[in-house]
Amino acid sequence: MATRMDLDGKPIKPMTICMIGAGGFIGSHLCEKLMVETPHKVLALDVYSDKIKHLLEPDSLPWAGRIVFHRLNIKHDSRLEGLIKMADLTINLAAICTPADYNTRPLDTIYSNFIDALPVVKYCSENNKRLIHFSTCEVYGKTIGSFLPKDSPLRKDPAYYVLKEDTSPCIFGSIEKQRWSYACAKQLIERLIYAEGAENGLDFTIVRPFNWIGPRMDFIPGIDGPSEGVPRVLACFSNNLLRCEPLKLVDGGESQRTFVYIKDAIEAVLLMIENPDRANGHIFNVGNPNNEVTVRQLAEMMTKVYAKVSGEPSLESPTIDVSSKEFYGEGYDDSDKRIPDMTIINRQLGWNPKTSLWDLLESTLTYQHRTYAEAIKKSMVKPIAS
Length: 386
Ligand SMILES: NC(=O)c1ccc[n+]([C@@H]2O[C@H](COP(=O)([O-])OP(=O)(O)OC[C@H]3O[C@@H](n4cnc5c(N)ncnc54)[C@H](O)[C@@H]3O)[C@@H](O)[C@H]2O)c1
Ligand SMILES: O=C(O)[C@H]1O[C@H](OP(=O)(O)OP(=O)(O)OC[C@H]2O[C@@H](n3ccc(=O)[nH]c3=O)[C@H](O)[C@@H]2O)[C@H](O)[C@@H](O)[C@@H]1O
What we know:
The protein is α/β, with parallel strands linked by helices. The chain has helices at 25-37, 53-56, 79-86, 99-102, 106-113, 118-126, 181-200, 233-242, 262-274, 276-279, 295-310, 324-328, 343-349, 357-380, and strands at residues 16-20, 41-46, 67-71, 89-92, 130-134, 162-163, 204-209, 212-213, 247-250, 256-258, 260-261, 282-286, 292-294, 319-322, 339-340.
């Protein structure tokens, strides 16, 4: 493998990375990228390894020995500090991060996103190890624009809705809206990491992902996850499409999101890993401001793309409305609109997303169809009464 160069033309030394939550959606893509394109070593920590099994076996893989899986729960495992000490860099991805959990399991959500992340920050700070911590765009909460009258011309002014790392406020709902337990816990851990940097010299980078989507995201209920489980929107809509059911639009599907392809986003993370001088001390939005849609438009586009990749006709009424109370239960609330400002990541790392929403849905839904269609068909065949 040719020596890799950083953005300033300096050779990059191979490093050891302690990746916590390596068995999840983002972790699996990051491990893949690191194995295929770089000489770095990964200590992969998680309670699950299904999504990275293809990287761990067989022993004949070209990167065998560069990735080692450690099955552990960071809530209670004395091996954590030792593994952080063995690495040059720690990346923390571990978290509960599905909205259906925020209002129904707020304690687990707060513990997972704040309390369980504390020792990771502490061990990095005490051992002078660099930390890349995964936060979320949800720390911005609602936009300022959403509080303006519906007909206010100011709603069209980007100053009232574009989200900037260094100037936008964090606007959450009331405490009884437990949806915000996740965003609030993430905000507090961001503040703690920032303070460790300011007071104790911790080298940190904070990532705020804006709806990264692609293959291996979450689970399909009843196939590789619980039948009653509610994953994030990509998997919910994929599940509906695979089962030929209408897609459920929560509260009219009016909320807006910008979706970025996981493979584009992983490029940004690799730049952070390999350019510490440009990434340390920064908080980065990572998203695609050009891929904005309402959830209703997302449903319509996914329906069209799925018909194309599966060859199956779409339903006559492809969507159905459902209230958030019915779908998520008491205490749900929503982010209205999420457009990332790209100034800081552009300036520091020269990164820009490339993939359009249509193209990323086409490759993702091709994967979903190939991976799940047969299993769904089998699970839907009713047993014949004897
Ligand atoms: N996917 C996105 O678009 C997105 C957006 C915003 C923020 N994030 C953040 O990025 C991170 C990764 O997200 P993801 O989409 O890959 O989620 P994911 O759920 O697929 O991955 C998280 C992984 O962490 C593991 N984990 C959780 N608690 C653990 C513990 N106590 N010990 C060991 N492992 C544990 C889980 O088993 C899982 O494999 C999270 O912190 C999330 O909040 C993701
Ligand atoms: O991905 C992100 O950047 C962050 O946002 C997500 O939050 P959200 O975008 O609200 O989660 P989704 O489950 O993907 O829902 C998106 C929208 O679709 C709606 N939805 C979801 C599922 C469904 O079946 N129907 C439906 O209309 C939701 O109400 C919401 O408005 C999650 O909180 C995190 O994974 C993450 O931190």
